[in-house]
Amino acid sequence: MHPSPHLHAVRFYEDADSLCRLVGEFIAAGLEAEEPAIVVATPIHTKLIDECLRKCGLDVDNLKRIGDYVTVDARETLATFMVGSVPNAGAFHHHMGSLIQQVLRNREKTTLRVYGEMVDVLWKDGRETEAIRVETLWNELANTHAFRLLCGYSMGNFYKGAAIDEIKQQHSHLVNDTGEQTQLVHG
User: Fold this and answer.
1) Do residues 155 and 139 make contact, with C-beta atoms less than 8 angstroms apart?
2) Most CB atoms within 10 A, among 11, 58, 88, 102?
3) d(CA 74, CA 152)
């Protein structure tokens, strides 16, 4: 039994500052509860999230040194499991599962916090189908690993005519501007 229920939340954001504040609060709450964290983000967002965590009073450098807070580049991480232009399930499960195991370091009963924006990177590149597939792969990984996942999508990316409902279908919760989570009910 996992220590906390599965969470796969989505945050549609308009600017990097609001996103990073919410992600910082999500990650900080976990770290303060002794839940290690992984941030899979663009370098600029990682820097902003680190700054937010410092403002919360966390020693980011020490957390990174001891391996309780790991940051990886979203685009580089995508490259570890994309075969051609398609996300490969086996490679995703191997790479992300190994990263989760590395951060947990034999703390199987501990829930991990993950923030990811690989899907947003794909969406910005016009690769909506691949983004949805990565969301599905995260849901599959949740069957074997305990983590609470927050995904970020830039609202500007949805002006291309993409269906927000399709993204919501892959998530259990929607996070609003104040950080409040609303459970999504799927028919």
Assistant:
1) no
2) 11
3) 12
Yes or no: say if 168 and 35 are a contact pair by the CB < 8 Å rule.
Answer: no
Backbone phi, psi, residue 144, to 5°: -120, -10
Residue extents of the structural domains in the chain: 7-183
CATH superfamily of the domain spanning 7-183 = P-loop containing nucleotide triphosphate hydrolases (3.40.50.300)
Alpha carbon of residue 74 to chain centroid: 10
Contact 27, 39 (CB under 8 A): yes
Give the sheet arrangement for strand 112-116, strand by strand: 69-73, 37-41, 112-116, 147-154, 7-13, 173-175, 181-183
Measured distance CA(64)–CA(2) in Å, rounded: 24
* The amino acid at 152: G
3-state percent helix, strand, coil for the chain, nearest multiple of 5: 50, 20, 30
Buried b (16+ CB within 10 A) or exposed e, 90-105: eebbebbeebbeebbe
For residue 172, the 8-state DSSP code is S
28-85 pLDDT tens trace: 999 999 999 999 999 999 999 999 999 999 999 999 999 999 999 999 999 999 999 9
Q: Measuring CA to CA, which residue among 89, 103, 92 is closest to residue 36?
A: 103
In whole angstroms, give the CA distance from residue 152 to residue 114: 11
